[in-house]
Design brief:
The chain is of the alpha+beta class and about 190 residues long. It is built from 4 helices and 9 strands; from the N terminus they run βαββαββαβαβββ. The protein has a single domain, classed as Cyclic phosphodiesterase (Cyclic Phosphodiesterase, Chain: A). It has a 5-stranded antiparallel β-sheet with strand order 2-6-5-4-7.
Length: about 190
Amino acid sequence: MAENHVKTIRAFIAIPLPVSVRHLLTDIQSRLKRAGIKASWPQPDRFHLTLKFLGETSCDSLAQIQAVMHRFSGQYPDLFLAAGSLGVFPKIQKARVIWADIKGDTRRLEQLCQELDKDLQKIGVAGQIRPFSPHITLARIKAPVSFHALENLVQKYADRWSAPFSADSMVLYESILSARGAEHIRMFQTKLGV
């Protein structure tokens, strides 16, 4: 009897970032590298603001996911955000991830995430486990970093922010993992503004 294999992809939904924001984050990331932090470094052209990580996703469900995303078309006009500053997960003493923060219209951004999560649950996608914490990953730390050195870096970039940008679309990405890092392929895009 032949086995029934369901084709899946690793996927997520995110807001793409404008070139000007990626340039700022690239500069900050370069300075972190020069500080000697041992980490894996996401490529700047792959910086994004994740709204929903879908994980392994059946290709059969992609049309439904796109239909859910399409329902948000034009529903979030004038959603302005800025990226910058620095933070760490889970805490400064045992940092594993260094990230750039998001400020601006974060209440509406959180509302968008909650509504998206709720609508995706209706088609069988697992709900969000942790509260939404908007950020852009700059580094995944591979070796312990001095608490004081990291605290100094975080303080150094506390007031470094991008100009406000319009978060006017969300994209469904396929994420392909390789030895060179993740490659993100755009599969579907919907406009959040009009």
